Amino acid sequence: MKILVVGGAGYIGSHMVNMLVKSGHDVIVLDNLSTGFRASVKSGRLVVGDLADIHLLENLFQQESFDGVMHFAANSLVGESMTNPSKYYRNNMGNTLNLLDVMVRHDVNHFIFSSTAATFGEPEYSPIDENHPQAPINPYGTSKLMVERVLQDYASAYGLNSVCLRYFNACGADPEGELGECHDPETHLIPLILQAASGRRAFITVFGRDYDTDDGTCIRDYIHINDLCAAHALALELIISGRKRGALAYNLGNGLGFSVQQVIDVVQKVVLEDDCSLLVEDGEPRVGDPAILVADATQAKQVLNWQPEYVDLETIIRHAWAWEKKISL
Ligand code: UDP
Fold this sequence. Notes:
The protein has 329 residues and is of the alpha/beta class. It has two domains: 2-170 and 223-252, Rossmann fold (3-Layer(aba) Sandwich), CATH 3.40.50.720; 171-220 and 255-328, UDP-galactose 4-epimerase, domain 1 (Alpha-Beta Complex). It is 40% helix and 18% strand.
């Protein structure tokens, strides 16, 4: 199949491209390289361009006949979305409409969308299933939810089949060590701790120790990047095969919660094997951080026939540490 991966130079997109190419698909990457890296596109053909460029999209869809589109290109910094909502609505929402409209014009009817647990907002219960109310508390989450709603209308009006995958905490790295996580600025817990261990950072700050959890630190659902990508491949297969139609949405997590302290403990154990250690400091809680965010991914498992492979936190951290060592030590 010929698949367009938008945002294929980013962390999740680049792992997805590798997986698709290894499965024998013909992949074209569209990325503006604003946060992604040319070097992360290991296979497939890279078209450098922006979703705001309607002419570029039109030309691309005229030249290529895509069987499906996966969309990972978005701004994803929650804090920035609070101070600069325009950027988030324009890029995550407006530019996605450009992509959807060119798909409709060219009769490309299969779309996989990178959504987020941030569409749920403050959890009312845990683990969070697909029936949980969606009430985002920041423009990032709202911009993603708006696209989810658009997809429902595009399914009924234009017959566009889509699957929204709502990620919890994507993490880890390619088990073969070819790719890994590279954000600038980096805001995610696991890469930040590993950077503190490799010496790229002086210390890691724990954002709050007074939460209503066993050890007082926040609990999150860390899902390995390869498991996440495997779910995308299955989702595309589900709609392309015609087994399901319409606008679908599934939560993706491994269903296990780990606290910030547990993550630090496992990192300390793993990096000690390389004679590395890290300094931990306590800081204030981060605004808008719920105590516990864990996914109920039963639906994804049942409907997509998805089974996460790397659920063990130590394995996830070993893969991420191998990558951190490769780029820093
Ligand atoms: N966290 C932390 N220190 C950091 C970065 C994150 O204690 O330097 C905590 C954060 O409060 C949250 C968890 O680690 O409870 C995961 O945060 P991350 O930003 O990786 O993902 P999020 O859950 O916000 O999407």
